[in-house]
C-alpha cells in the first residue's frame, strides 16, 4: 500500500557516495512528470546535476551559509523547473517533488527538499541557464541514504486531527 512508502519516506541529509543509475534517476523524474498540474499545463522540466564542480557551485549559492553539505555530497541533484506556461508554478513543483520523494523511497533512495530562497533563485537560474521567466523553488538531492531513520508513526490518532464541516 502507498501508506507504507509514505511512512518510510524521510528527509535524508547524509548520502553514500555510491552512484545512482540513469534508470533510477529517470524513474524518479517520471514520477514527478506525471504529477497533476494546475489546468493540466504539464509545464515542468528537470535539470539533473551529477558533476561535482556543478554541485559545488550550487552549494556555494544555497548551502554554504547554513552548512548543508548534503547539497554537494549527494550523488545527484534534480532541479524541477516550472516553465512560463505553468499556471501555478509553486504548487506544480511541490506536487511533483512529493511524487519524486515517494518514488525515490520506493527505489531505496534518500532525498530531501532543499529550498531555494527567492534571493538565490536568480543566481541558480543564471548558473544553470534557466530562462528568466521560469520558476525554481527547490532542489532535490538524491542518493543512497548514509543515515538510518525510523519510519513515521502515528503518535496521535488521525481522528483527533479531523474536523467535520468546520473547525
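^ Assign residues to that structure.
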Amino acid at each position: 500500500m502507498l501508506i507504507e512508502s509514505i511512512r518510510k519516506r524521510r528527509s535524508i541529509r547524509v548520502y553514500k557516495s555510491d552512484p545512482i543509475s540513469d534508470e533510477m534517476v529517470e524513474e524518479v523524474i517520471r514520477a514527478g512528470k506525471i504529477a497533476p498540474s494546475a489546468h493540466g499545463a504539464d509545464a515542468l522540466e528537470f535539470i539533473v546535476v551529477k558533476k561535482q564542480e556543478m554541485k559545488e557551485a550550487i552549494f556555494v549559492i544555497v548551502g554554504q551559509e547554513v552548512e548543508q553539505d548534503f547539497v554537494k555530497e549527494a550523488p545527484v541533484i534534480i532541479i524541477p523547473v516550472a516553465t512560463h506556461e505553468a499556471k501555478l508554478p509553486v504548487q506544480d513543483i511541490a506536487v511533483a517533488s512529493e511524487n519524486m520523494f515517494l518514488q525515490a523511497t520506493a527505489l531505496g533512495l534518500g532525498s530531501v527538499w532543499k529550498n531555494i530562497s527567492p534571493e538565490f533563485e536568480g543566481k541558480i537560474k543564471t548558473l544553470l541557464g534557466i530562462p528568466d521567466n521560469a520558476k525554481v523553488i527547490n532542489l532535490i538531492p538524491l542518493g543512497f541514504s548514509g543515515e538510518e531513520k525510523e519510519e513515521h508513526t502515528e503518535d496521535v490518532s488521525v481522528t483527533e486531527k479531523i474536523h467535520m464541516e468546520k473547525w
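The radius of gyration is 17 Å.
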